[in-house]
Specification:
Radius of gyration: 31 Å
Helix content: 40-55%
Largest sheet: 9 strands, mixed
Shape: globular
Strand content: 15-25%
Number of strands: 24
Structural class: alpha/beta
Length: 686
């Protein structure tokens, strides 16, 4: 009998051992790949899209829930119209006094104002409002914060500066709370923070919840001071009325007792006014619905409050458990699919998607838990499938020059080379530098792009930005700091000095004006520009692994205000007196007067950039007439000013600054102006 170990019959057994060993190594590598990509996407920002989509998608399939514990009172467009309240003015607090009196009569549980009453207005009206707050006893007033940049012996840094309601109102209120929300990319609000630890300031939802149920302060699940929001539906699911209807005496508007035993949230919800301006609105998992694209900030606070008192906020598993689940997925699919032929492996992978997705949905609906299930579904299982089909052919390619390619989107070629060759520019730190700053914005962007296909809009925006960068900013050797939606933030004189930086910025602004060839929805794109020259902190505020070359300071804000002022004056390019002094007679400009802007103590001289010198004769008569009208206005000779501005309109009936002054002349005739008034216009809005 032949020896089994030395006979031919033993060779198949050896071959099988070899193949089995190779499969085992492939399975081990598949586990590493599948589990590794899952952990990588779970850990690093590149996986945010999958994780956030895992949170968003279950809402689309769950039925809307109608909560009855809250009532919304909106300061909406209809209220502005019916209550004769101008958009540019602070709300008359007598309306809120009347509202509070009704809520007190109807025994509302609590009232949350998502409005910062920081300015003292009419003493009598404020006193009445304070009395109404005190009488109610369960009012939460909003506080807001801004970034504050400081420097001292210990160094430079950024802190928060809170803006509370005026003292008399705070003393009357039960609590004050932060309005701040912390959205992700795309203005999505998914996580809600209960407050800011530094200032011990509660969020609006947390302050209201503690008024209703003080025992929540001992809930261990809220020890981390944040939670994932459980939205009940689009904003329309929350019971809501307009402010003007809540103030009507007729029961038919809002029946008596409507607010009884409810927590009432009061805040803004604007849909039509100044479409190009950023409003207090955010994206939610229901933003895919065309008629519910945005949710107001006050409604998000109300949703968070409902989550707290109902105990149905969304939970996540402990981090070790989430890691364990991802590793288990890697073992099952990365190590298992490699033992199946391509077709069965594909069928198994597809079939496995459904139990994973349903398991998460079951936990979401019945137990208020969610897990980033799209990481296994969209990454781990496909990776395991690719590995099982390709088997030992997976290769990893590294994209070279990625950093330089990214920088070219923001910086001119000379600056890209400067960053690449000088590592010190990548280190954190900044220095004070005189800059000319430019902010641009597309006029009426929301309305002119309404209904456009996203792909077509992206294509047109890319073409717009391409010409804006190549033909305007980089052409004059400016530095693009960032794109902000349809806006661009850029400056000149850094990092390389440019003696004529105001002129370069003005030339870039005129080149923007000359780009009228762009059209969205058949409408010409009009770019509004704001320019200002001043000192700012310039440098890299990121880290050595991420370049964020930018500038901070109040002069940056002033340039942005110049851009926003175009909307009121009907102009396209505005600059401050500081930029005008740097340009002199090299450009055609006209003085538009003194403006006291919100957030700035001193009035600012504002000039309109009209054209290049060779075209100055075309507007000579208009500029002369306007200057005469402005002098009359500054001397309080309003009758002569009105007549003079109308003479300007004879030359150009569409002249925006003249229309602006004619509207304000009527108001100033009724105002008691101080003796030292020099013609400055005070704007209360940004």
């Amino acid at each position: 009998m032949p020896d089994p170990e030395n006979s031919y019959g033993s060779r198949p057994n050896g071959l099988w051992q070899f193949l089995r060993g190779t499969k085992a190594k492939g399975a081990a590598f598949g586990v590493l790949l599948s589990a590794g990509i899952g952990l990588f996407l779970m850990t690093f920002p590149i996986g945010d899209k999958l994780r956030f989509a895992s949170y968003d998608l279950p809402f689309a399939h769950r039925e809307d829930i109608k909560p009855g514990e809250v009532a919304m009172v909106f300061l909406d467009d209809a209220s502005h119209v019916h209550l004769n309240q101008k958009y540019t003015e602070v709300w008359n607090r007598a309306f809120f006094t009347k509202l509070l009196q009704r809520l007190t009569r109807e025994h509302a549980k609590a009232v949350v104002f998502d409005i910062v009453f920081s300015d003292a207005l009419d003493p009598k009206t404020d006193a009445d409002f304070a009395d109404a707050i005190r009488e109610n006893g369960h009012v939460v007033l909003a506080a807001d914060w801004t970034f504050k940049y400081y420097s001292g012996v210990a160094g430079k840094g950024v802190g928060r500066e809170f803006h509370y309601a005026q003292q008399s109102l705070r003393e009357a209120a039960a609590d004050d709370a932060s309005t701040q929300l912390f959205p992700d990319a795309g203005e999505y609000v998914r996580i809600y923070k209960l407050g800011t630890q530094e200032e011990s300031t509660k969020s609006e939802a947390w302050a209201a919840a503690l008024l209703v149920n003080p025992d929540l302060s001992t809930n261990s699940e809220l020890a981390h001071s944040l939670f994932w929001l459980n939205y009940y539906g689009p904003e329309s699911i929350l019971p809501a009325v307009s402010l003007y209807r809540a103030l009507e005496d007729k029961d038919a508007a809002v029946p008596s007792g409507y607010f009884s035993n409810k927590v009432v949230f009061v805040g803004s919800k604007l849909q039509t006014h100044l479409d190009s301006e950023r409003k207090d609105e955010y994206s939610t998992p229901y933003s895919y619905r065309i008629d519910n694209r945005w949710m107001s900030g006050v409604s998000i606070h109300a949703t968070a409050f409902l989550n707290l008192i109902r105990g149905d906020w969304l939970r996540t598993f402990a981090n070790p458990m989430e890691i364990g689940i991802l590793i288990l997925m890697g073992i099952v699919f990365g190590g298992g699919l490699i033992f199946f032929r391509p077709l069965p492996a594909t069928l198994i992978a597809i079939a496995s998607v459904f139990p994973v997705a349903y398991g998460d949905y079951y936990l979401f609906v019945h137990h208020f838990y969610w897990f980033p299930w799209l990481i296994p579904v969209a990454a781990q299982i496909p990776m395991a499938l690719v590995w099982s089909v390709a088997f030992n052919t997976v290769q990893i390619y590294v994209e070279k020059q990625k950093v330089e390619q990214s920088l070219r989107l923001y910086l001119p070629a000379r600056l890209v080379k400067k960053f690449a060759s000088d590592p010190t520019l990548l280190r954190p730190g900044a220095k004070k530098q005189q800059l000319t700053i430019l902010f641009s914005d597309i006029a009426s962007f929301t309305s002119i792009t309404e209904g456009m296909d996203p792909d077509q809009l992206a294509k047109l925006m890319n073409a717009y930005f391409q010409s804006a960068v190549d033909d305007c900013i980089h052409f004059t050797e400016g530095t693009i700091v960032k794109y902000i939606g349809d806006a661009i933030f850029a400056f000149w004189n850094a990092p390389d000095p440019q003696d004529d930086h105001p002129y370069r910025a003005a030339e870039a602004a005129l080149r923007f004006r000359d780009q009228d060839q762009h059209e969205f929805n058949g409408k010409k794109v009009i770019t509004r520009i704001g320019l200002h020259t001043g000192e700012a902190n310039v440098g890299n505020f990121g880290s050595t692994t991420r370049v964020d070359y930018t500038a901070f300071g109040e002069n940056i804000n002033l340039a942005s205000r110049m851009e926003g002022l175009n909307k009121y004056l009907g102009t396209r390019v505005l600059m401050t007196g500081d930029t005008y002094q740097g340009i002199g007679s090299r450009m055609v400009t006209r003085h538009l007067g003194l403006f006291r802007l919100k957030g700035f103590a001193k009035a600012v001289n504002v000039y309109e950039l009209m054209d290049r010198p060779e075209n100055g004769q075309k507007t000579s008569d208009l500029r002369q007439r306007f200057d005469e009208a402005l002098q009359c206005f500054s001397k309080k000779d309003f009758a002569a000013a009105e007549a003079a501005f109308r003479r300007v309109l004879e030359l150009n009936p569409q002249d925006g600054p003249s229309h602006f002054y004619l509207e304000h002349i009527q108001d100033h005739r009724l105002d008691l102006l101080p003796p030292d008034w020099k013609g400055e216009i005070t704007l209360k809005d940004k």
